[in-house]
């Protein structure tokens, strides 16, 4: 995902950046130049990530300290100062020798080591709201532990573009300045050099975007109108700090190129504080910048699916544990410690490097077909494959912490409720009341029905051997309900579920589906309420169709030519695909599926099994399901034993909606966007990640919604792999979810294999709003009801309890637990409906909170303190704004 980059040539420069030798007449006159020294951090790429971590805590930090010591005889503003991101500095402090740690801490206190606010360079689009906020904690903990103010500056390098959440998050965390240095080969978003980046909540962040390299040039460009310049001298990937000779030579060069200017060595914050005094007139950029590298995450589809689930369940576990203490449970496990460790794994998966690159020549070379299989069999790819495994292990380690712990905590709750005998407890992790179907696997022989202890409702159950399913209604916000086994008969209800095998039809109260038996896809999908047809029968793509693309050299070369802006000789090795022959492009889908219908009291399904043939060398299946009580169609794709394939390929599920001149709404990280209006030019128009869902609308604001909890990668109108467009406007009502790809030829996983599944949901939209049409349905899919069983003696806590509720569905509780940054507990709320609102927040039963102090995203107290009355508070939100409160 980056560059091999002519390492040696760049390291010979006294600075890294663009060496622009300017004449005095070409160089704008500036009064002051702030020089910042930094190294680009990759957790991997140049070596196995464990080796990188070792080097940072040993040779790299001691080398930096040596340069600092050698510069101590100079005036303070000329001494060497090294800027480091939060997570590698945490590693250096944690894993260096005691005497080195002491020197590091002194250098930070003395102002010779700066720790900026971010943990490292991330592909923010792959992340989620609360894990991103928590990632700021590495740097803030270091500053608090050392008694220093929190950093007001932040830096990202390499990744060309970032999600719109960045200005919202950093501004609301008290960060004032962000520098982004782009990979020199990758196209950059069209933004000014220095600008205000306005987030979806209208937060503004001063942002410096340098499109030519990680740092900046030693002197400003001709059109620079300010009196202060920022010269970031950044060494290449994991290569360490400058030597004394290199840093002094760089400062001398900058002085020469900026005659008459005061040149001082400092921090990114020094630049912000200095240029702010000029009261600069900067353009405001309002827009999202979808990442042109983000498709690489779908080279690890299983890990991406798990990471998305963990981004919710990790924080849900802490909230559940905190709530349990109010319900009468005593903490038996170190939940906060587990959550912190899991979050670190999530952060490291969101960090922008995956592993080694083929172009380095350290492990195999690009080969295809029989040659690829031979090289792999001989072990020539073992080194590079292990580097990818290191990346995936971050997710696996988090799963090993969170999934068993959450299971134990739910079991403990079920055991502790004051209900005798067999009982099932259902917990709702969202802050509004919900109904949904739940599934429990148990060998226990239940009676005829279940009874809700909270409402007295008698509920039918569906039993299939050890699988038990039922409809759980009125589960309170972030609370739970106990259900008991009973011989009482559930009220008879007429089922709306049916199927006709001969006609290939199935339906419920909401939809009628007609299947295309030859292709194993949906031929017609009627929304019964509006009598609208969802499926565009004239599309070249089928509805619910699996598509495998194998790309041609002409396509990969065109993409490289469209996308690479500099350094073709090395960049093509990284961003194109070398050693391909002239095999033409091929698009394949399964045909002649074996179709089997099934029905029970809660759902009706059609299962399609496709066997690999000459066009498609793997087996897969599709399961289409309608539920009795759910106004959505469920689509499950499952692949079995996909072989490894080094040839450039991708897999999709297509949904061609029956809407002319479609308008799209994309639920992205931090807010819902219109992809035609809200994307900064030269960002990724062809492919992007969603965080909630997609709306496909007609001119009357009606249409359809679609999402997946497992697959965030989406293209509109047509599949978007191996494409880089600067003026593409989607018009056809087609939505494509990317199941997997191996497009990124640098250091993402280069062949995808194995077995896994992905779920999708489709629903109708009557009158579009961000909250009701996209955010709420998608959040309920990403945060399913949770269930546990217990038997035996009754416990002592209530059979049902409420948790935290919000009066506005779509206002999320992203964090509830111990305040990491001080005393008390902390609750974080995040408005995602896209509207200004006043929301009543009701706190959990049993809580004794008296006050709620507003604070920023790093726990710094800010604003008024609210008195809590009747266990509730009213909070004003701007659209898409996070609000944090310290509860005492």
From TrEMBL:
Keyword Cell division tagged: no
Domain Glycosyl hydrolase family 38 C-terminal: 506-640
Signal peptide (from-to): 1-21
Keywords noted in UniProt: Signal
InterPro entries: Gal_mutarotase_sf_dom, Glyco_hydro/deAcase_b/a-brl, Glyco_hydro_38_C, Glyco_hydro_38_N, Glyco_hydro_38_N_sf, Glyco_hydro_b
Glycoside hydrolase family 38 N-terminal domain ranges (all copies): 33-277
Name of the featured protein: Glycosyl hydrolases family 38 N-terminal domain-containing protein
Species name: Flavobacterium granuli
